[in-house]
Amino acid sequence: MQVSGLDKPDQISVGQAAGERAPDADPVADATGRAGSTGKFSLGTLKSQVFARIETLDIAPDLGADIGSKRWFRGLGTFVGLSVVALAFWPDFAPLEAASPLPDDGEILGEYHSQAILPLALGADTGRRMGPSNLVRPLAEAPERPQLQMLATLGSGDSFERTLLRSGVGRSEAQDILSLVERAMPLSELEPGTQIDITLGRRPAPGASRPLEELKFRARFDLELAVSRLDPGDNLTLSRKIIRVDETPLRIRGTVGDSLYRSARAAGAPASAIQAYLKALSAQVSLDSEVRETDTFDMIISHRRAATGERQAGQLLFAGLERGSRQPIQLMRWGKDGQFYEASGVGEERGGLMAPVPGRMSSSYGMRRHPILGYRRMHAGVDFKARHGTPIVAVTDGRVTGAGRMGGCGNAVRLRHGNGIDTRYCHMSRIAVRGGQSVKRGQVIGYVGSTGLSTGPHLHYEMYRGGRSVNPASVKFVTRAQLSGDELQKFREALRKIRTVEAGAALEDLAPTADEAAEEGPKREIDKLNMPQQVS
């Protein structure tokens, strides 16, 4: 029995591939992408074919590669196109117009105005029918207030008389008030900012000035003046009220901490007093390196407190610094010039030489060729370049030993200072001192010129020590005053007394005396409504 090739597995597989569909075959499409013999459509297969096609597209070429090629220009075009589309969709932030919250109709707006709740002085009314009509007639004479109260302030550069006239006081009464006030104090002592309470009465006739009923102001910290009439029509009279003032100095102590200035401000010291304290202290120690955080600052300030409650802080009187085991610093203001002296009676150090004129040095000390004589000779000083007429000042305290014409120096001034030091100032256009006169540091002694052997306006400045010429740039003056005798004893007694002041004692309110308590009447709430009107 002959068997065909059916018993060969390989032949069976081939036959199935040729005629029959294998179990795992795709019923939709063959290798060419056409639909299978069954005619059914598969969405998944189509999606795969679309994604495969997209992956083969070169949509966004790398602009960093193949620069200048067709592919690069195509990528550039894609980039520009996408940018244009993005800008086209850029949001617009312009404000949206909305309808007006109020109607445009004039009649309705008038109704809103009539029903608004506003003061009558600002134009409000009580209803639509309250506007003026043809029946309204102006008054022949408007009634006036029987009394006017105002508060006038004396401005800087203003006068007491102009302030009164501006407030409505008549000229004749203003003159009477000035004469009365001048009996109590000079008008020049009135400080800017003084507030004047003025009360004016009823006009005696239409168009006439209102008569003064009462005028009050704080003339000084310890004095209050009042001008008034005993009865209407009487003459003006002046009354003085002396205010009790306590002048116990204000003592402020505290730890330096991170910042001496901020610590002192936090303790309640005025800024001006702290600046004076730092200036006095810096003449003794270095504020950056010698003042520690654990040190204690001690300052005493002149302070006045009135029985009426006002307070007034003045200048710094004492500057102290406690530095633990190190020597403490004690400085007190003393004398007419207000210098600070150490506890030993030594005054504060007053810096080195001042520049005689505000200008740069144009020629230094030493040998040089003379610009006029034409040969080399010793230039026994320094030249300062300055304009004609510039003030020349003394470099330190001294006495004038010569003032006048001095040969090639022209108009000159010679000063003698301590420790055998002399200075001379040459080529002046005008001399401002005379022989034998004492001058202070910084005092004007003449003016820049070009007299004598000079090629132009400048100052020739010389210095001599023991009669021999020295380079002025090499010398530095230090002036320290020294108390002695009775003055030193008074100073030490005042220092001992001022150091007994307790810290913060001046901050307590003064207890009223029996007379002050009797004058202080009960305060009513209704009196608070009767406030004077400000006058600008």
TrEMBL record:
Which intervals of the chain are annotated as region Disordered? 1-34, 509-536
Swiss-Prot/TrEMBL cofactor(s): Zn(2+)
The cross-references to Gene3D superfamilies, in alphabetical order and at most eight, read: 3.10.450.350, Glucose Permease (Domain IIA)
Could you tell me where this protein is found in the cell? Cell envelope
Residues in coiled coil: none
Q: Name one GO molecular function term.
A: metalloendopeptidase activity
Residue ranges of every copy of the M23ase beta-sheet core domain listed in the record: 377-472
Q: What is its main location?
A: other
Using the record's annotation, list all stretches that form the Csd3-like second N-terminal domain: 251-357
What's in the GO CC field?
cell envelope
Specify the species.
Answer: Qipengyuania nanhaisediminis
Q: What is this protein called?
A: Peptidase family M23
Task: Please name the PANTHER family in this protein's record.
Answer: L-ALA--D-GLU ENDOPEPTIDASE, PEPTIDASE-RELATED
What does the UniProt keyword field contain? Hydrolase, Metal-binding, Metalloprotease, Protease, Signal, Zinc
Q: Which GO terms describe its biological process?
A: proteolysis
